[in-house]
Amino acid sequence: MTARAKGILNNTATMNTKKILVPCDFTKVSDTAIDHALVVGATIGADIHVLHIIEDKKQLSETRVKLDALAARVQSETGKKIETLCRIGNIYDDIDSVGNELDADIIIMGTHGLRGMQFITGSRALRIVSESSIPFIIVQEKGIQPNGYDSIVVPLDLHKQTKQKLEIVVQMAKYFKSKIHLISPGESDEFLHNQLERNINYAKEMLEEEGINYDVTVTESRGGKFVKAVMKHAEALNADLITIVNMYENSLVQIIGGSYEQDLITNEAQIPVLCVNPVQTTVMNRSVFAS
Predict the structure, then answer these.
(1) Angle of helix 190-209 relative to helix 161-176, nearest 10 degrees?
(2) With CB atoms 3.0 to 4.6 Å apart as the test, which of 97, 116, 163, 281 could cross-link to 27 if both were Cys?
(3) Residue 221 phi/psi, 5° resolution?
């Protein structure tokens, strides 16, 4: 673990400030992403950096005017300052690139339908997230509560990345004093059932040791139906966040089929989704929430 990561985790970082990057296309969903970043930033003590990417330097002057106006509006409405930057390039390569240059701890990005200047749709958001080395929170137009993420739904599966996800969830729950809602698929096969039971017990022990409030739901659903059960459960709880392992090998969504990835991050209830990168694809300890 790097010294900077230790400082973040212990909440004692003095030389390096935590940073949140927010890609912006000047649409309503971008404003929502900035709102999320402001609440999260205030909770964890992070600076907010808003990024707009252009394709041609001829757009630079106009974009600077828009970004300056956005920063002025945010400060006028919230009393909070945001940093703005413009990059010539494309959203697929440069969001992660800028995030790494800033040493950002998390990226909060909006996704929407086929509208907006840069068309960051669910499918495009998936591509951006899957190629990033930094954890993402994907939001839609639904706003964030003033106290952040009180209720977090955590799907548990059969894979070791589940434990990595739990480490981040624990830290997030501490920041926001959240209640964690664990949900696991049903499994009739005895071996798989026992493995799921071990994961559930591991999660319960971790949460109890950390003094985090939680409950557990086991559904009868498996495969693609489990994703639908997760979304239905989250909507019934009016959850503030769903956490998933990122779209890589051995992830929850990889097992049940790629078509469900977009369903998760563009769910009809517009619940934000935290995408956690597995350890084999990035250094997990870079996350502001990692343990």
Answers:
(1) 30
(2) 116
(3) -85, 145
Residue 11 has pLDDT above 80, yes or no: no
Q: Are 109 and 98 in contact (CB under 8 A)?
A: no
Q: Answer whether residue 28 is part of any domain.
A: yes
Average pLDDT over residues 40-53: 95
How many helices (H) does the chain have, and how many strands (E)?
10, 10
- Same structural domain, 172 and 208: yes
Torsion, CA 58, CA 59, CA 65, CA 71, rounded to 10: -140
The whole-angstrom separation of Cα 168 and Cα 228 is 24
Distance CA(47)–CA(28), nearest Å, equals 21
Q: Is the pLDDT of residue 116 over 70?
A: no
Residue 86 has pLDDT above 60, yes or no: yes
Q: Which of 139, 170, 202 is the last residue of a domain?
A: 139
Full domain range(s) for residue 62:
3-139
Q: What letter represents residue 4's amino acid? A: R
Please indicate, yes or no, if residue 115 is contained in any of the structural domains.
yes
Give yes or no for a contact between 196 and 159, defined as CB atoms under 8 angstroms apart: no
pTM: 0.83
pLDDT digits (tens, 9 = 90+) for 158-212: 666 667 678 888 989 999 999 999 998 877 778 888 888 888 899 999 999 999 9
Cα maximum dimension of the chain: 63
Do 195 and 128 share a structural domain?
Answer: no
